[in-house]
Design brief:
The chain is an alpha/beta fold. The chain has a single domain, classed as DHBP synthase, CATH 3.90.870.10. The chain is built from six helices and ten strands; from the N terminus they run βαββαβαββαβαβββα. It has a ten-stranded mixed beta sheet with strand order 1-8-2-3-7-4-6-5-9-10, sandwiched between helices.
């Protein structure tokens, strides 16, 4: 059975965060609000939990799971290096709707799918998500929907699609922006926008001092 916690109410918000943290630590799945759309999340360092996440969505390893972090400093331990372009974008747009693809640290013992040695990182601008991430550490988080269906904008929409595959649902009202994050690939010499979403290419270009366009 899954449980829904109303995080708009102070008395149930903390209970929900505690239940979600315990679920993540025990290898279970949770649905959490972010500033873009709702996400389904698991412990990024638990391969079995990440496998359950992919199975719940009906998604293959060829579509690896992004990782959400609760602070800027967490990134340094997850990637091979943080280039100046990445630091500039992090300072400008984190927390917020920008995901960065970087070469992962080779020592990391995780399995997010077929990442080809990279990791997709984001720090969301949502207090509930940040509180959970700061409690449990980096989480593998994908949009809270079954593959082929629209992303969930509320926990209830997520529950209609994912059901009891998820143990804890954190409800915090409709997503603020209701659009997916922008994804920028920083693994090559020139930044590439793989998906334009919450942050537009013009804003990226202004920060980096070069034209950045979507593919």
């Amino acid at each position: 059975m899954s449980t829904v916690y109303d995080c708009k109410r102070p008395d149930t918000r903390q209970a929900g965060l505690t239940a979600a943290a315990n679920t993540v630590r025990s290898g279970g799945l949770v649905v959490l609000p972010t500033d873009t759309v709702y996400g389904i999340g698991a412990d990024a360092f638990d391969p079995s939990a990440v496998g359950s996440l992919l199975a719940a969505k009906g998604r293959g390893r060829d579509m690896p799971v992004p990782v959400l972090v609760g602070s800027w400093s967490t990134v340094d331990g997850l990637v091979l290096s943080v280039p100046q372009q990445a630091r500039a974008l992090i300072e400008a747009f984190w927390p917020g709707g920008l995901s960065l693809i970087l070469p992962q640290a080779p020592s990391l013992a995780w399995d997010l799918g077929d990442t080809r040695g990279t990791v997709n990182l984001r720090m969301p601008l949502h207090p509930v998500a940040l509180d959970l991430l700061r409690e449990v550490g980096p989480m593998a988080v994908s949009s809270a929907n079954s593959t082929g269906n629209p992303p969930a904008l509320t926990a209830e929409q997520a529950r209609e699609q994912l059901g009891d595959a998820v143990s804890v649902y954190l409800e915090s009202g409709p997503s603020e922006h209701q659009v997916a994050s922008t994804i920028v690939d920083l693994t090559q010499a020139r930044p590439r926008v793989l998906r334009e979403g919450a942050v537009d290419s013009a804003a990226l270009s202004e920060v980096l001092g070069m034209e950045v366009t979507a593919e």
